[in-house]
Amino acid sequence: MAYKIEMKHPDFPADTEFDLGGVAIKNGSTKTLTEVEEQRLVAFHGTFAKDALSGNPNLKVSGTSELSKKEVEAMTGGES
């Protein structure tokens, strides 16, 4: 199951669009990441997508990666 992300930021109106680093999500919405979107997040942040997104208290991340550890390491130049 791919990553599913949910954005709920109380300080912004519904439908405000947030860019998470190559992937956009509207406030109050849920999005299932495609493999390509997950690759964008890894490339932008230089680490696993879940690690990159976990620091945002207004963003809930569930599910599992579509990318293997080996694929992420290849994209980031080593261990992340």
Q: Care to describe what's here?
A:
By secondary structure, the chain is of the alpha+beta class. The protein has one domain. It is 30% helix and 21% strand. It has three helices and five strands. The chain has a three-stranded antiparallel beta sheet with strand order 4-1-5, with no helix packed on it. A two-stranded antiparallel sheet has the order 2-3. A hairpin with a 4-residue loop joins strand 2 and strand 3. The longest helix is centred in the middle third of the chain and has 11 residues. It is elongated and about 40 Å long. The chain starts with a strand and ends with a helix. The mean pLDDT is 93.
Give a quick rundown of the structure:
The chain is α+β, with helices and mostly antiparallel strands and 80 residues long. It is built from 3 helices and 5 strands.
Layout of SSEs?
Layout: E1 4-7, E2 17-19, E3 24-26, E4 30-32, H1 35-45, H2 49-53, E5 59-62, H3 69-76
Antiparallel strand pairs: 1-4, 1-5, 2-3
Terminal residue distance = 22 Å
The computed structural class is: alpha+beta
Q: State the oligomer.
A: single chain
Largest sheet: 3 strands, antiparallel
SSE run? EEEEHHEH
User: Could you tell me the radius of gyration in angstroms?
Assistant: 13 Å
Task: Report the portion of residues in β strands.
Answer: 15-25%
Strand order of the largest sheet: 4-1-5
Instruction: Domain count, please report it.
Output: 1
List the total number of helices.
Answer: 3
**Tally of extended strands?**
5
- pLDDT averaged residue by residue: 93
Low-confidence stretches: none
Helix residue percentage = 25-40%
Q: Specify the overall morphology.
A: elongated
